[in-house]
Amino acid sequence: MTAQVLDRESGTSERKWRRRGLWSLVLLIPLSLAIESYDSVKALLGDNDLFPRRVAWGESARFGGSDWKLTDLRGAFGMSKLPPDSVPVLADFQVKIGDPDLQRRWLGCKAMLIDKDGRRWLSTSVVSLKTPDNVQTCTSAIFSGAKSGDTLNLRETFLVPKEATKSIRPAVGVASERPHFLLFQLEKD
C-alpha cells in the first residue's frame, strides 16, 4: 500500500514539475528572442533616419552640436548629359558650429531629399558643378578643422526625377542624433 501511495505522489510531483517547465517556456522563449534581437533592433534604429524634426524655412535648429539652417534649394536646369527627365538640385545650408568635435558628432553625415511619398535621394557627385571655395559638403566639413563659433557654408547636389521636384524637402541626418533627422520645410508649407 505504501508503494502505491509513493507512486501516486511521485506521479503528481512529476506532473507538477512538467507543468511548471511548460509555463516557464512561455516566459523564456519570448525573453530569449528579445535578448537575441536587441542588437539587431538597436542597429536598425541607430543606422537609419526614422523620426523627422521639422524646421521651418529661415529657422535654424540645433542638431549634432551645431545650428543648421537651410539657406537655398534650387534646381540647376539646362545641363546636358543627364538621364532623361532628371534634374540636378542644389541644397545650401549654413551651419554655426557649437561642438567642434565634428568627427564624432557628424559621423555618418547624410544629406537627402525626401518627397511627399517618402522616397529619398542621397547627395551625389555624379553632377559636377563649380562651387565657391568657401563651400563644402557635409562629409568634407567633418575634416575642416572648424572651431566653435565658426560658420560653415555647405552645399549638397542631388539628381532627382523632374516629377519629384514639386514635393521634395531637404533633410540632414548625423550619427549622434539618429534615429532623428532634420526635415526642412519650404516657404510655401
List the helices and strands and how they pair.
Layout: H1 2-46, E1 51-55, E2 60-63, E3 66-75, E4 86-97, H2 102-105, E5 110-114, E6 120-122, E7 135-136, H3 138-142, E8 151-161, E9 169-173, E10 180-184
Parallel strand pairs: 1-10, 7-8
Antiparallel strand pairs: 2-3, 3-4, 4-8, 5-6, 5-9, 9-10
Report on this model:
By secondary structure, the chain is α+β, with helices and mostly antiparallel strands. 29% of the residues lie in helices and 33% in strands. It has three helices and ten strands, in the order H-E-E-E-E-H-E-E-E-H-E-E-E. The protein has helices at 2-46, 102-105, 138-142, and strands at 51-55, 60-63, 66-75, 86-97, 110-114, 120-122, 135-136, 151-161, 169-173, 180-184. It has a five-stranded mixed β-sheet, with no helix packed on it. A five-stranded mixed β-sheet has the order 2-3-4-8-7. A hairpin with a 5-residue loop joins strand 5 (110-114) and strand 6.
Rg estimate, integer Å = 28 Å
String of helices and strands:
HEEEEHEEEHEEE
List low-confidence stretches: none
Number of strands: 10
Oligomer: single chain
**What does the average pLDDT come to?**
86
Shape: elongated
Strand content: 25-35%
Helical amount: 25-40%
- What is the terminal separation in angstroms? 88 Å
Widest sheet, order of strands: 1-10-9-5-6
Largest sheet: 5 strands, mixed
